[in-house]
Design goal:
Rossmann fold, mainly alpha, binds tryptophan, 7% strand, binds iron/sulfur cluster, 327 residues, Tyrosyl-Transfer RNA Synthetase
Length: 327
């Protein structure tokens, strides 16, 4: 058993934003230093909700993987691939589906919730109900012991553990039971003060230009109590500041705190300073992404290399599975 093995997937939803940057990606970056990491684009999981219009999925994978690479997810250290390129995910999914009681899937809290949230789509499909089974297959296919996930994915991981136990009980101890490595993602606020999310249209993307980022910061909400330029403000009530403070130096934060409270700086000038800090912090990422984008074959090459590595490990597991179930 390889207890340094980590598996995590992300559904390809396109370009990533600062919320991903501070949550999942910075966590992956840390993990790849000391674990044997398998990171993949969960495109079959995207199909569970996007099956009626799949036109955007390929491009979303490319955009997402470019962001991973530019951010520092390193194909020399981690295995980076696409779920659909390793057919064993589907094979194990099928076998696990035989031992998974439907009631476990029906009582999964995210099942009803997502159906309600995405009411415009018909999600009363077999595949959507089976989302957690495929996720279990993704994880135990590599006999991973740890899975970095956010709070929202904990119910899914619990089902993975239940399915693993049931498989092992029926056929012998083939799989280690994976545990969640809970990723504490700081809540990143978007331009309008709501949680940053692509669907709210309030996100700052890792792939946008410096000018776009600058313009977005200038449009951000500030302390709404501060109506006139001569009113004193409070950075703690300022959406712009809440997003940008992490890019400011200690001295800058102090300066802004004082200047805002004493009304000695206007919000426009203050946001210019904040935007500059954010843009500078993103500059290395942006140039790396531009460099990667200029060699169009690179993403496909990295994914192909990752898939062949993943497939080797997956094939070993499937040999054990077939021996265990004798089918
Ligand atoms: N369900 C996860 C999400 O929506 C994506 C995912 C698919 C995943 N397979 C996985 C995450 C395996 C961790 C491990 O974010
Ligand atoms: Fe926000 Fe700066 Fe305006 Fe204060 S001065 S409300 S911190 S933008």
């Amino acid at each position: 058993m390889n207890d340094r093995r980590i598996v995590s997937g992300m559904r390809p939803t396109g370009k990533l934003h600062l919320g991903h940057f501070h949550g999942v990606l910075s966590n992956w970056l840390e993990l790849q230093k000391s674990y044997d990491c398998f990171f993949f684009a969960a495109d079959w999981h995207s199909l569970t909700t996007e099956y009626a219009d799949t036109s955007g999925i390929r491009e979303s994978i490319r955009d997402m993987v470019l962001d991973w690479l530019a951010f520092g997810i390193d194909p020399e250290k981690s295995t980076i691939f696409c779920q659909s390129a390793v057919h064993q995910h589907a094979e194990l999914n099928l076998i696990l589906s035989m031992v998974t009681p439907v009631s476990w899937l029906e009582r999964n809290p995210t099942y009803k919730e997502m159906q309600e949230n995405l009411a415009a789509k018909d999600l009363s499909t077999f595949g959507f109900l089976g989302y957690p089974v495929l996720m279990a297959a993704d994880i135990i296919l590599y006999r991973a012991t740890r899975v970095p996930v956010g709070h929202d994915q904990l119910p899914h991981l619990e089902i993975t553990r239940e399915i693993t136990r049931r498989f092992n009980y029926l056929y012998g101890e083939v799989f280690p039971e994976p545990v969640a490595l809970l990723t504490e993602s700081p809540k990143v606020l978007g331009l309008d003060g709501r949680k940053m999310s692509k669907s709210y249209g309030n996100a700052i993307f890792l792939s946008e230009t410096a000018e776009e980022t600058q313009k977005k910061v200038m449009s951000m909400v500030t302390d709404t109590q501060r109506v006139r330029r001569t009113d004193s403000g409070d950075p703690d009530n300022c959406v712009a500041y809440s997003l940008n403070q992490q890019y400011l130096s200690g001295a800058q934060k102090e300066e802004i705190g004082f200047a805002c409270r004493s009304a000695s700086i206007g919000c426009v000038d203050c946001k210019k300073m904040q935007a500059k800090a954010l843009v500078e912090a993103m500059a290395p990422f942006r140039s790396k992404r531009d460099e990667l984008t200029s060699s169009p074959a690179i993403v496909a090459e990295i994914l192909a290399h990752g898939a062949s590595k993943a497939a080797r490990s997956a094939a070993e597991t499937m040999t054990l599975v077939r021996e265990a179930i004798k089918v």
